[in-house]
Each structure stands twice: as structure tokens, then as C-alpha cells.
Amino acid sequence: YSYFLFSLPYSLARLTGLTEYGALQAVIIFFNAFAFFAMYWFLRRVLLLDILISNVIATVFAFSNVLAVNMGHMQFLSIAFLPFLTGMLFRFMAVLRVRPNYAFIYGSVFFIVFPLLAFTSFYTAWFYALYLLVMLAVLILIQCLRREWDFFARVLVTIKVSRSLLISILMVGLLASIPFLITYGPTYLQRGGFVPDDILISTITHAL
Which of 48, 64, 97, 106 is exposed most, by the fewest CB atoms within 10 A? Predict the structure, then answer.
């Protein structure tokens, strides 16, 4: 783990004169607060849920038991970025055809933050990507069961019409992924891949 995203507020806290432990506590408080506001924004502004429901869910998320069970693993603070990333993805899909400039911003932010998340805490990003793929598979399955074949036609038309925009966003993501690829690429090749037991251990840990 590089702890890159954590190092930014930590460095700022140290510059203000805080000790190592004081700066660490400031980072924990900052990311707990960020987790709350990110989840609240996603629920309230993106999904348009009720204020009370948004507050309750955001509070529970900010004080996730992942952090309580794994107090020695600060990288799990990175879950604070997940509602923010999901919100960017939702906003991107909502405005892709109608407001391409905004779609470029939302898509670029997603593809910049996600590689930084992977660079900071690989397993958090790995499980998040797996979750997105599973949700995509479920969506495709539902559309097939409903025989909504026009859904796939609309997706293909959208991709065709917005291909220049999508390529631009992917290029931004590729550039943002360079630090992650340089860091993890050689290790991956040296090990010949990731050991399945490592993934299973992390799955059990996340599920506690």
C-alpha cells in the first residue's frame, strides 16, 4: 500500500505543526468526515433520497465496522471514496448524451480518482471494480430476462455517438494509471499474479 491519498492531508497536518500522532489522528478524522459527506451527497443529491434516510445511512457508513474490526489497517479508510466514485459514475451516465462537457468532467474525475485509489489501497479498488462488474452482469441478465433488446441497441448507439468523448476519458484514465502501473506492474510480473488465498483472506476481512 502506498497510502498516497492519505499522505496529502497528513503532510498538510504536519506542516501546521502537529506531531506524527496528531497528524495521524487528523487524517482519520478528516476521512471519517469525508466518508459521511460523500455518502450523504450520493444519497441525497444523486439518488434523491430523504434527508433523514441519507443522514442515517451516511452516519453508519462513516463509522463502518470495517474500521473497527481492522483498526491496524489504515488503508480501509479509502472506502470513503467509494460513494464519491459511484456518484461520479451515475452523473456521467445521466448526462452522457445531453451534456457532453459535464460528462467529460464526471468521467475524467472517476478515471483519475479510481487509479489513485488503487495506488493507495489496491484491495479496496479491486473489490470495488469487482462489484461494478457484478452489477453490470446483473443488469445485462435482467434486460435479457425481460427481453428488453432495445436497451442494448440504445447502448450501442450511445457508444457510437459518444465515441470521441469516451476515448478522451479513457486516455485521461490511462495517464492517471501510470503511477499505479509503474508501481504494481513489476510486482505483479515478479509474483506471476496475485495469490488467490490473499484475495480470499481480504474477502473474509471485508465481510466481518
Answer: 48
**Is 117:176 a contact under the CB 8 Å cutoff?**
no
What's the pTM? 0.87
At residue 64, what are phi and psi to the nearest 5 degrees?
A: -60, 145
Tell the residue number behind the cell numbers 506492474, with chain if given. 185
Q: pLDDT of 6-16, one tens digit each?
A: 888 999 999 99
End-to-end C-alpha distance for the chain, whole angstroms: 21
Residue in 86, 26, 32, 84 with CA at minimum distance from that of residue 62: 32
Rounded to whole angstroms, the Cα distance separating 63 from 44 reads 19
Length of the chain: 208
**Rg of the chain over all Cα atoms, to the nearest angstrom:** 19
| Of the candidates 43, 119, 53, the residue with the CA atom closest to the CA atom of residue 84 | 43
Interatomic CA distance for residues 56 and 62, integer angstroms = 10
